[in-house]
Amino acid sequence: xxxxxxxxxxFGPFAGEVRVDFTRGGGSPFVLINGPTGAGKTSLLDxxxxxxxxxxxxxxxxxxxxxxxxxxxxxxxECVAALRFQVGARRFFVERKPAQTVRSRGKxxxxxxxxxxxxxDANDAPKGERLSRVGExxxxxxxxxxxxxxxxxxxxxxxxxxxxxLLLAKSDEKEKILQRLFGTEKYKLAEEILKRRRAGLKAxxxxxxxxxxxxxxxxxxxxxxxxxxxxxxxxEARRGRGEALSAARLALVEAQAERAGGQAAARDFAERDxxxxxxxxxxxxxxxxxxxxxxxxxxxxxxxxxxxxAEIARDAAGAKRLDAELSRLAGELExxxxxxxxxxxxxxxxxxxxxxxxxxxxxxxxxxxxxIRLREFESATRRVEAGAKREAQARERAxxxxxxLTRVDERLAGLSGGIEELSLRVGGAEALMRDMARLxxxxxxxxxLDDLARRHAAALIARDGAEAGATRAGDELVASRTALEALRxxxxxxxxxxxxAHLAEGEPCPVCGSLAHPHLAAxxxxxxxxxxLARAETAxxxxxxxxxxxxxxxxxxxxxxxxxxxxxxxxxxxxGDDADVPAENWARRLAEVKSAHAAALAAEGRLAGLRSAxxxxxxxxxxxxxxxxxxxxxxxxxxxxxxGERAVLDRxxxxxxxxxxxxxxxxxxxxxxxxxxxxxxxxxxxxxxxxDADKRLEAARGERAAKAQSAGELAVRLAERRETFxxxxxxxxxxxxxxxxxxxxxRERAQTLLDASALFDQRLAAARDRAExxxxxxxxxxxxxxxxxxxAFATASTAVEERNREIGELTKQIEGLEAALNSLRETGxxxxxxxxxxxxxxxxxxxxxxxxxxxxxxxxxVLAAMFEEVARAASARLARMSRNRYRLVRxxxxxxxxxxxxxxxxxxxxxxxxxxxxxxxxxxESFLASxxxxxxxxxxxxxxxxxxRLDSIFIDEGFGSLxxxxxxxxxxxxxxxHGTGRLIGIIxxxxxxxxxxxxxxxxxxxxxxxxxxxVNC
Length: 1017
What we know:
- By secondary structure, this protein is an alpha+beta fold.
- The protein is built from 21 helices and 17 strands.
């Protein structure tokens, strides 16, 4: 990831908008972010990290969003951090607004964090999907950059006070970073696959063992041999049961044949008994069937007279209906005659009322003319009253407007006086604000100076103690070395004396081979033992370690003291002549100025209110003046209109007769309008009613005559038919109509009885034939004993079933044993295959999981190998920066027993020849090591195929802890990066860096907030 353009607004110390273009550096790989302490250099890194991840660069600053908003920004200005950045050949844009309080429409509004993210095309225009959810943008940035926010601060940003984090990070933390950089997830996946495969094989083996045990347990057997023995015994038993089954089947066939013969004879005897019984039953019902047939024949004769009887019944019913109709028509004729007489009288009355029409029309014409004049007079009267009312209202509104205008003028005069008074008091607020800022800065500087003085005094004591400890450690080291040398000399002398005591003249010396021994060593006391020498060497090593630690402590104390003294000088220079003024005085003066400023601000608030009120009253006065003019014009227009209406009213009053009442005239007009058309309508209706009555009366008379003629004809026909019906009944043997009715039945019923008689005759003949045929097979034979035959057959069947059941049970047991034996055989073969595979996979899984001499997993081993390259690349740079004193090496031993090792770093000190943890480096040395590690990591990642490219590194401070010569070596090493395409951003106020690095971003503090100026970039 390489930043292109960073834009901050109302962010940290930047009250306005600042824009940093990282692409303006030309070919230089370095950009120096320069400025005094507190100007806001680190805030640029905060903005970069916040735009990407929604968190600032430092651990402490990354905890909350609200600190990001500038305290000097305008209340309505939003805090924004936006970044255009490049990943490979693609470019992206991200903008974030932290949670903040913003003034909107006069109210403070709490706003949550907001974000926008999209890709840019070649013209820097948005393309593709736009993201606006915080979680989605965070995931997308992590995917593109390749790091979480925490890892980004460890690898690509070395924040102030936190540059040692990657150097001293635990192996677990380094593992996460290196895994993202080098894409080694596949090795961890291989570990997991081996573990899962081993677990799967083990589980399958256990399942197979449990399956074998289950098979043996289900058959209550100890082993497979017992199952095979049982199988052989059951097979022999089934063969014996098969022979018994053959004999039982032969007996069953014989019993079945005998029972079949008996069953056939029993069927013949049963058929004879059924035939005899059926014939006797038929003969019992023969008499009833014959009687039913006779009744059916009589019913068929009676049915021949039924049509004539139906015609007689219909004629009688018709005659009855005609008599009822004649009675009804007689009553209706009487009613219609009365209605006609009434209609005739109504017609005479309506004619008399209609004849009054011309007289009423003349009266209506006269009253209509009078009504018109009365309506005009009433309308003129109402217009005069309304005009008088409008004139009064207009004059009243004009008076009220004049009074309101007077009151507004009085209020405007009062507001102008108050504004003049408050304007004088508000004029000094800006000067008071500047005084407050100056006093607050001086008070903080004085407090900081007091704190530095206290820390300086403590640092002096710590330095003296550390130097005294170093002196004591040096004395102890000298004494220990002296003691060790004395023991070694004594040991050598003792060994020489021991050798001399065993030399013989003329024999070669075992050391030098000489045959002459002119000067034999003499004993000089007791020879020290090896244990004494080992204790002395251990004591010397302890003293050397103690001396190293004491020297570091003294160096750290001196460095800290020098830093405090430098800070005190800078602080005093910043305070100038006010450096000796006590902080209490600054606080008291600041409180006084704040009180005066608060009063001025309060006056400013009241002044704004008065000015707003005056503007409102001025607008009101203009509106009131315009309204007053409109009211006066309206009053004049109303008076003119009223005079005209009164003239019209006077003219109409002379045209009206005394005593005329508009209501009475209108009532009579309404009455005439109703009476005239009502009389015409009533006369027409009376004429129509009389005509309808005449028509209905004539129709009723004609209908009555027709009905009377039909009734006479029907009576003659009915008498003739009744006589004919009685004569025919006597002819067919029916003496009376009741006798005929008794013989009558439905034709279907009679036919059914005749059909039943014929069927009975057929069934009787068939029964006689069946009885004769059934008697022939039984002649001369005895009835069989079926009970004995069935018992013999059942016994034989039971024997066969018992043998089949026994054989089935034995077969089932045999099949179960065969299935168990097959299962055991298959399980055994599969178990042997799995055990062979498990031995290989299990060992591979153990090795990959860390069960190896190195006690490292496969993934950690790969990372360690890659980290070895990082350490070598970092050592090359660290050696140059430390003048060949320090090199970084990967520690073989685990620092923390609770976590896996392999990725911890040690430093190889050429000055002592010892390898020690990187945590033992001093502040300046740690900075150099951290810088070398970051650069080495960038080198290796860039060369690793498939890894990520670290295009940018930002370093916040740290160069101030280096002495001049070390700083020179560090800068020379950095300068060698020219042409690598990486951007190195350095935040520092060290003067040497300004001289060595041309491309600069200067952060300049002002009273209105810091600003940014780019120099040579």
